[in-house]
Amino acid sequence: MSDVIDKMCKRVAGWLSGKGKDADIVISSRARLARNLQNIPFVDRASENQQKAVLQKVVKVAEDSKILRDAHYFDLQELQALDRELFMEKRIISADFVSRDHARGFLVTSDEETSVMINEEDHVRIQTIRAGFSLNEAWEYIYRVDRELSQELDYAFSERLGYLTACPTNVGTGVRFSVFIHLPVLSFTGEIEDIFEQMIPAGVTIRGFLGEGSQSIGNFFQISNQYTLGWTEQGILDRVVPLIERFISLERQARENVMNGKERIMIEDKIYRARGVLSHARILSSMEFLNLLSALRLGVDLGFFPDVKEGPFNELIVITQPAHIQKLQGKVLTERERDEIRARWVKEKLHLN
Amino acid sequence: MLCEKCHKREVMVKFTQVIGSEKKTVNLCKQCAEEQGLNNPLLDISKVFGKIIVAILSDHLATKSAQEIVETKDNVCELCGLSWADFEKTGRLGCPHCYDVHIDHLNHLLRRLHGNNRHIGKLSRQVDDRQESLDSLKKKLERAIKTEDYETAAELRDSIRLIEHKQGTSSS
């Protein structure tokens, strides 16, 4: 099993390609479904034997399915702590799944875009992540996975409340769509605060890091649906997608305005300073790195640095996390040692000098 | 400004979340932000959703008088043993049957969470199959009546009634 993990550690997941629709602004799109088996308590109140039985049953069905035939299964209790962290950093499993302590496991496809967690908060959690703005594609795929698995699994379902989940925030469709979106100029100008307050329709949640200048983290935001009940899956998509499109067009407009306005020198200064620090720093904390990467990425988008390729940006966000650095170096490292390696890798990957 | 969690170190991160029309901001220092996994914008912060429930519940409790709370009988789920008081602590139900046992409490909560309390999305395979067979039986019944095959029609009518009766009990 450690061979498989070593290989996965070096491989770059499909969703990090930086390709896809609107990939300069939307990093990734994710669809997730929550399901539970009929007549068995949810994970937290199930007995040890029930948890084991659920795990066995779902793994068998998933392994026998056509759609997940190339997926690899990992038993969480057999994984070492660092390997668990690695899968969490790859977004294949959740932080909550790592910190639990009972029979649980997950399957992940070879492109690392689709995974099935068994015995997280719900018996079954299916997710697909795609590069760029591709929620519809992620939904279409996950719908097929769900349809095939449901041929063999009897899910807890009520005609009035839909799919029943441990947390009432997921009941009904059990579907959560989300995107990670990079909005550096809307954050820079402060417009994002007004948009937060005025533009978000009921049923949609946005979260992220706001603050002045260097105090924010990378200007990355996560937009997702809050409502899962009382809407069709398509209806939920139709509510989330136009909002994201609006964010994309506002960010593009703000970039154009700032390039043609008096503020241009301010943003140029921020971008060139970021390049300077990334090129010469010997120690980079993860937070500092994300802020500088956000600025450099904007610089590349605005055409300041034809010599820098945007390709490795998303990959860098993932491989400069603590478990990845330690796995790739093959040893346990202190925070200071990791900060040193991070600074070196950034220069190498982006060919900065 | 000092970190909201440790009240010791300077604020480094403002984490903002908009839910419906409400905006909430948490101010944290670098260390506390890292402990919460908030230093990595790619990670999913699913626990945040659980906290919404607790917030709604505490609102709800505040609007009830002490008398009302005492008088409200707390049912316990006979399958998994979860009481509504248990749910209020964790924000998690115990089993599918809890949705029947605690439906009066849940109706209010679901409307707050989703603006709605009735599913209109995709049906489960079992329900879908049953619906499909119901539709095809109804068509057969029409045909039988048209061709005046009353014996078959009577059998079909019984089958349809049986399925509809089952649906009635499972959705109540």
Description:
- The complex is a heterodimer of chains A (353) and B (172).
- Chain A has 13 helices and ten strands.
- Chain A has helices at 2-10, 48-64, 81-89, 95-99, 135-150, 184-189, 191-198, 233-259, 264-280, 286-301, 313-319, 322-329, 335-350, and strands at 26-35, 72-75, 105-108, 114-118, 124-131, 157-158, 162-163, 175-182, 204-210, 220-225.
- In chain A, β4 and β5 form a beta hairpin.
- Chain A is globular, with a radius of gyration of 21 Å.
- Chain B is mostly helical and 172 residues long.
- Chain B has three domains: 13-39, no CATH class; 45-114, no CATH class; 121-167.
- Chain B is built from eight helices and two strands; from the N terminus they run ββαααααααα.
- Chain B has helices at residues 30-35, 47-62, 66-71, 84-90, 98-101, 103-114, 125-146, 150-171, and strands at 13-19, 22-28.
- Chain B has a two-stranded antiparallel ribbon with strand order 1-2.
- Chain B is elongated, with a radius of gyration of 25 Å.
- The model of chain B has no long low-confidence stretch (mean pLDDT 76).
- The interface between A and B is large, with 74 and 64 residues.
- β9 of chain A pairs antiparallel with β1 of chain B, so a sheet runs across the interface.
